[in-house]
Write a sequence for this structure.
């Protein structure tokens, strides 16, 4: 579905406003008085703020309603938060299980609720979908969506469509002293453009400061999944593709199979496979000789159908020290960030193959600037074993998708 173009509607509204102001100057061939001019000046100023679209003034009654609602909702979840394991770090992060427990509490309010966990399904999603369907028909309405954040706090997102424009009133709450709810901020912003896609994603771009007010582009884009994924797709997404993404390795953004695996970035893949196997980030020992060959090869072979000899030929390997080169990603050095690399891989379909493998249909969902629910679509072949282990057997980018994404940058310069 195409982005809703609201520029024409806004121009018509502006024209009506201008005609009204000009009309006020001449009423029966008599110029407006001082009070009228003051009113016109205020109207012009208000219109300028509306055209800007961000940092809009918030009606005090509406603001207080949002604040009180946030506090009430937080207090309903307080018992869950206090019992949750919050670790020892000053930056509190609650588990996905805790966020889901909080979601169940808010679900009873019969309002849409999501969590900040990857692949979170929206509770009461039909309410949000109904609002969007009506907005597509230019029917006025509003909806409140709650998002539970990783720190155990919430965001209250109230979307309002007035028949021409959509606005977002955001109130964010966190836990303060003595575990009492504290309001972080309240903001009111016009949505510059939005769309509800056939795949079930609500993408929107908020009005933000632009050049020359700012020297660098500000991204006001967001993507929210409305239609739930199947439980199977959610679990496989978490298990098989989430950790890889599209940054620092090319498992999901290149064409390869068992007959052609030379192009994989094995030196880049290592840290992601390590985290998948051990559940923690790879910490390089600092050994200047690199990662020992046996350690490196055994991990790669556990997840990919390659031999040690093939890895030695295709990866950056030091035969003298029998080790593999590794270095962390450093933006501007061995890694150039792009909008695409921040995309979320989402399994949307699972197909059983005749050879016992599974083919995962994956969309790259990008919520940065372009708001695209499928920058590329690929088919990842995975062989699952009875003991719940698995191997990646191949990946195929569909619909000439390779032309839509930047050329992959290898972590470490490869041999000719």
């Amino acid at each position: 579905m195409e982005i809703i173009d609201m520029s024409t509607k806004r121009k018509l509204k502006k024209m009506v406003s201008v005609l009204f102001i000009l009309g006020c100057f001449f009423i029966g061939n008599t110029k407006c008085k001082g009070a009228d001019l003051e009113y016109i000046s205020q109207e012009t100023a208000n219109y300028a703020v509306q055209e800007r679209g961000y940092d809009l003034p918030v009606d005090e009654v509406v603001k207080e309603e949002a604040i009180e609602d946030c506090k009430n909702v937080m207090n309903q979840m307080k018992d869950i938060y206090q019992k949750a394991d919050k670790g020892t770090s000053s930056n509190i992060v609650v588990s996905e299980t805790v966020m889901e427990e909080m979601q169940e509490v808010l679900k009873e309010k019969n309002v849409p609720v999501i969590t900040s966990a990857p692949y979170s399904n929206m509770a009461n999603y039909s309410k949000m979908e109904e609002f969007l369907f009506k907005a597509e028909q230019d029917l006025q309405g509003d909806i409140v969506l709650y998002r539970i954040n990783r720190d155990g706090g919430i965001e209250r997102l109230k979307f309002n469509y007035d028949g021409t424009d959509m606005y977002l009133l955001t109130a964010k709450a966190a836990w303060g002293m003595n575990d009492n709810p504290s309001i972080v901020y309240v903001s009111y912003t016009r949505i510059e453009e939005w769309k509800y896609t056939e795949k079930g994603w609500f993408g929107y771009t908020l009005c933000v400061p632009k050049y020359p007010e700012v020297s660098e582009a500000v991204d006001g884009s967001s993507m929210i999944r409305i239609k739930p994924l199947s439980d199977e797709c959610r679990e496989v997404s978490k298990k098989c593709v989430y950790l890889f993404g599209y940054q620092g390795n090319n498992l999901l953004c290149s064409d390869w199979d068992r007959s052609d695996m030379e192009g994989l970035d094995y030196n880049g893949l290592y840290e992601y496979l390590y985290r998948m196997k051990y559940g923690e980030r790879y910490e390089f020992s600092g050994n200047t000789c690199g990662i020992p060959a046996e350690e490196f090869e055994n991990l790669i072979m556990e997840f990919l159908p390659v031999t040690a000899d093939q890895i030695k030929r295709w990866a950056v390997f030091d035969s003298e020290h029998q080790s593999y080169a590794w270095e962390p990603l450093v933006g501007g050095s061995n890694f150039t960030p792009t909008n695409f690399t921040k995309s979320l891989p989402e399994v949307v379909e699972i197909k059983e193959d005749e050879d016992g493998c599974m083919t995962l249909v994956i969309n790259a969902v990008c919520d940065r600037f372009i708001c695209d629910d499928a920058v590329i679509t690929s088919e990842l072949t995975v062989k699952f074993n009875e003991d719940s282990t698995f191997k990646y057997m191949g990946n195929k980018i569909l619909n000439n998708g390779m032309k839509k994404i930047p050329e992959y940058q290898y972590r470490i310069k490869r041999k000719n």
